[in-house]
Amino acid sequence: MRLHRNLVFAVIDALNLIFNEKEYADKVIEKVLRYDKRWGARDRGFIAETTYDIVRWKRLYSEIAEVREPYSRPNLFRLFTVWCVLKGISIPDWKQLETTPERRIKGRFDELSKIRKFRESIPDWLDELGEKSLGNDLWTKEIAALNKQAEVILRTNTLKIQKAQLQELLADSEIETIPIEGYPDALKLKERKNVFTTEAFKNGFFEVQDASSQLVAPFLEVKPGQRVVDACAGAGGKTLHLASQMQNKGQLIALDIYESKLKKLKIRTRRNGVHNVETRAIDSTKVIKKLHGSADRVLLDAPCSGLGVIRRNPDSKWKLEPEFMERIMGVQQDILQNYSKMVKKGGQMVYATCSVLPQENTNQVKAFLDSENGLEFKLIKEQNIYSSESGYDGFYMALIKKI
Ligand SMILES: C[S@@+](CC[C@H](N)C(=O)[O-])C[C@H]1O[C@@H](n2cnc3c(N)ncnc32)[C@H](O)[C@@H]1O
C-alpha cells in the first residue's frame, strides 16, 4: 500500500481531536472527511478505518511507542508508525516519520500481547470489572470479539420491500449482500461500502442495524393494532423495527428525554413510510403517569455502558468511567421501576441493553422483580447475546409479563 501524505495528515488531525480535544470519533471523522471534496471512496475509507484502528488500539500502540497523553504531533506520528509496522505497510521517507526500529516495535508487540489489558487495549479498571463480572475465560473471549471491526448489517424495511428484492436492487448498485440465518430481515454486506448514498436507502427500503439489535423488537412480540410504548426510543432504530412488525397498525408512542433525538426519529419514520408513531419528549413525570396501565407492550431499551457495541464505538473504551457506570445503573433501575407502570395487566415489556455486564442486565431485572413494584411481574425469558458467540454486538434482553 502506498501512503498519501494528505490522507495521513487527515488521520493525524483526527487523532488529535479525538485524543487531545476529547471529541467523539464519529463526529471527528465526518468533519475531517469534509476537508477535500476530491477524495474518493477509497481515500475516505482509508482515513476512517485507519483512525478507528488507532483509536481501538490506543493503549497498546502508546505502550509500544512509549508515548503518553496529551499526545504531541510527533507522538501522534509515532502511533501511526506503529500502526504501519504492525500492518506490514512500508514506512515512507517523510520527515514526520523518523527512522523507526521496526524490530523493536514487533518485539514490544509480542511482549505486550501476553497481557490482556495491553493486548486488548483497555483501561485497567475495565479489564478488572470485565473479569470480575464474566469470569476470566468468557471475558478474555468477549473483549477479543468486541475489538474486531463490526461488519455492516442492513435491516430490510418489510413495510416497503421484501429481503430478496432488496438484495437484487443493491446488487444492481454493486453492493453485494448475504442473508444471515436466524435474522429474518438482515442482509450482511460482503464488502464495506457507503450505503447511505443509494436510492434504496433514500427510498426507505432498509436501515443500517446490527444483527443483535434486530433481535430486540421481535422479542417484545408486538401485534398489529396494539398500543406499544418505546420508552427510550432515541433516534428510533428499534421504533422503526417495531412499526414494521406492527404492519403500521395500532399506536406506537416513542419517548425519550431528548427532543433532538426524537426529531431525527421523525425524519426516519417519513423515509421508512411509518405512519403509526407519535413522539413525546419526557419533560416531566406526567408524560409517564398519563400512560400508566395503558400499554400492551413496553420496550425499555435502556441507556447503558455500551460495552456490547465498542466494535463500532471504540472511543467509548476511553470515555467510559467507573462513576458513569454507577450512575447509569441507578438510571436503569429507575426506568424499570417507573416505566413498568405503563404496562397494562396481561401486557408485556422488554428490558434491553447493549451491554454484556450482568450488573446492567440480569441483576437489574432481578432487583426489579424482587422489589415491591415488581411483584405483579414475571420473567418469561431472558437472553445474553455475547459477541464472542454470535459474531455481532453484545446485547441483553428480558421479556417480562404483567400478571
Ligand atoms: C440505548 S439508547 C436507545 C437506542 C434506541 N432505542 C435505538 O434503537 O436506536 C438509550 C436511550 O435512552 C435515552 N434515555 C436516557 N435516560 C432516559 C430516561 N430517564 N428516560 C427515557 N429515556 C432515557 C437516551 O437519550 C437514549 O436515546
Automatic annotation (TrEMBL):
Gene3D superfamilies: Vaccinia Virus protein VP39. This is 16S rRNA (Cytosine(967)-C(5))-methyltransferase. S-adenosyl-L-methionine binds at residues 256, 283, 301. Pfam families: Methyltr_RsmB-F, RsmF-B_ferredox. It comes from Flagellimonas maritima. The gene is rsmB. GO terms for molecular function: RNA binding; RNA methyltransferase activity. Residues 142-403 form the SAM-dependent MTase RsmB/NOP-type domain. Its EC number is 2.1.1.176. CDD domains: AdoMet_MTases. Belongs to the class I-like SAM-binding methyltransferase superfamily. RsmB/NOP family. The active site is at residue 354. Transmembrane segments: none annotated. It comes from the Bacteria. One of its GO terms (biological process) is RNA methylation. Keywords: Methyltransferase, RNA-binding, S-adenosyl-L-methionine, Transferase.
